[in-house]
Amino acid sequence: MAKITNFNEEREKRRSDARERQDQAEQKIARHKLFRLIRILVIITILVGTGIFMYVRYRGKIYVGYDVINSVERTKVDGAKDVKLGNSVLTYSRDGAHSVDVKGVMTWNQSFEIQDIQLAICRNVCAICGYNGHEIFVQSSENQLGQIQTNLPIKNLTVAATGRVTAVLEDTNVMWLNTYEPSGQNIYEGQFHMSQSGYPCAISLSPNGDLLAVSFIFVEEGSYVTNIAFYNYGPVGDNQSDQLVSTFTYRDMIVPEIHFMTNGAAFAVADNRLMFYSGEQVPTTKKEHILDREIKAVYYNQNYVGLIFASDRADAKYVLRIYDTAGENVAERYFDMDYLGVFFEQGTYALYNSTDCMIYTMAGGCKYEGKFDKPISLMLPTETPYRYRVVTDTSIDTIQLK
Q1: In what helix (H) or strand (E) does residue 35 lie, and over which residues does it extend?
Q2: 311-354 confidence digits (pLDDT tens)
Q3: What average pLDDT score do residues 27-55 get?
Q4: For 236-259, what is the mean pLDDT?
Q5: Chain-centre distance of CA 391, in angstroms?
Q6: In 359-387, which positions are buried (b, 16+ CB within 10 angstroms) versus exposed (e)?
Q7: Which residues contact 399 (CB under 8 A, 6 or more apart)?
Q8: What is the 3-state secondary structure (H, E, C) of 108-136?
Q9: I need a labelling partner for 24 at 20 to 30 A (CA). Which of 7, 223, 252, 352 fits?
Q10: 223 DSSP β-pair partners
């Protein structure tokens, strides 16, 4: 019996020792995991803190000059105009047009003779014609997309990013709204009697070409009335009479401008009101602003609309008000500089003329105020923050603020 008792005691001792070693191992693993977690949290805290510090420093940084990091030569003929076409520069005159990419390479060159040029641009696609002409040239920033022939004189036109074009054509007693593919195929026709529908004074295609917005103006009982009409060229519009999906009437008001910002966001500018619309199939009113003074200029992209007014303050000539796609007023800036152009980036905007430039954040912070080394005709944003392209008569320069 003594031997059996000793054996049982030895077995229990070994089990106790094993449990103790297991507990010690588990405690050691737990301490190791806790140490590793603490180390990770410390690293994350340092990285987040560094990121916040760099972001605050970046947001608060004011640039005092710039470096020219690349320059390509160009030759510009007298009377030619430069405009943004995607990431390229479109130069046009009465004798023709051409596009130059960021490397200074001419991607296409189109010759024509047009006295009164009508130009429509949507992102990296443009349509060019002559007022009362019969031919439309459709181009992207990379290549020529096609030519369209009309049998009636052209009064106005708009283009989508797909190359689809809608033109206002004048007949003897009616107006036509004809829509074409860049190949020249006439895919939709609309006939309007001015005594009934009014005169189509402004038109705009959505970037994908599925929606057409038209501002019709007519006189009723001695006062102006504007109808804003939206036409849908897709399946939703096929179920509606004449593709018409929504209309909005504005009395005692002229609406000379209407534009799509995105496929589902549009805005219209009247003499005393700014209207926003929303919807990719059936647009509805989103927001309206009553305007208290005359509009001097309108600038927009896919994110923002900017209106320039005469200033109501003695210390500035102008005031710029900026709105987002929802119609919210997100920024306002009084300034005294005569302007050549305005463009928007995410969170910032720039005002410039041939010799001066001002860049601000939407929150109101000044990022840069300075002069160009030589006169410019156009300033373009790039994909890199605070890096821009400036177009002069002799070069296209890429500059980096410093």
Answers
A1: helix 2-60
A2: 999 999 999 999 999 999 999 999 999 999 999 998 999 999 99
A3: 69
A4: 96
A5: 20
A6: bbebeeeebbbeebeeebbbbbbeeeebb
A7: 66, 67, 68, 69, 387, 388, 389, 390
A8: EEEECCCCCEEEEEECCEEEEEECCCCEE
A9: 7
A10: 220
Q: How far apart are CA 359 and CA 353, in angstroms?
A: 12
End-to-end Cα separation, the chain, in angstroms = 94
CB 255 within 8 A of CB 266: no
| 249 vs 235: CA distance, rounded Å | 25
pLDDT of residue 11: 64
Rounded Cα distance between 307 and 297, Å, is 6
Please tell me the distance from the alpha carbon of residue 320 to that of residue 285, in angstroms, as a whole number: 24
Averaged pLDDT, 178-199: 94
How many C-beta atoms surround the C-beta of residue 282 within 10 A?
13
DSSP 8-state secondary structure symbol assigned to residue 179: E
Reference 58, options 381, 288, 304, 385; nearest CA is: 385
Q: How far apart are CA 387 and CA 390, in angstroms?
A: 10
Indicate the CATH number of 94-367 among 3.40.50.620, 3.40.50.360, 3.40.605.10, 2.130.10.10. Answer: 2.130.10.10
Structure-token pair, residue 30: 């737990």
CA distance 214 to 200: 6
How many residues comprise the chain? 402
* Cβ atoms of residues 318 and 311 within 8 Å: yes
pLDDT at 131: 98
Nearest C-alpha neighbor of 267 from the set 339, 347, 334, 202: 202
Helix (H) or strand (E) holding 31: helix 2-60
Amino acid at 223: S
Contact 232, 242 (CB under 8 A): no
| pLDDT at position 12 | 67
Question: How far is the CA of 202 from the CAs of 22, 57, 137, 244, 254, in angstroms?
Answer: 82, 45, 20, 16, 10
Q: How many other CB atoms are there within 10 angstroms of residue 350's CB atom?
A: 19
Tokens of 160: 């989508």
Residue 275 — pLDDT band, cuts 50, 70, 90?
very high
Helix (H) and strand (E) counts for the chain?
2, 32
DSSP 63: B
Determine contact, residues 290/272, Cβ cutoff 8 Å. yes
| Cβ–Cβ under 8 Å, residues 326 and 285 | no
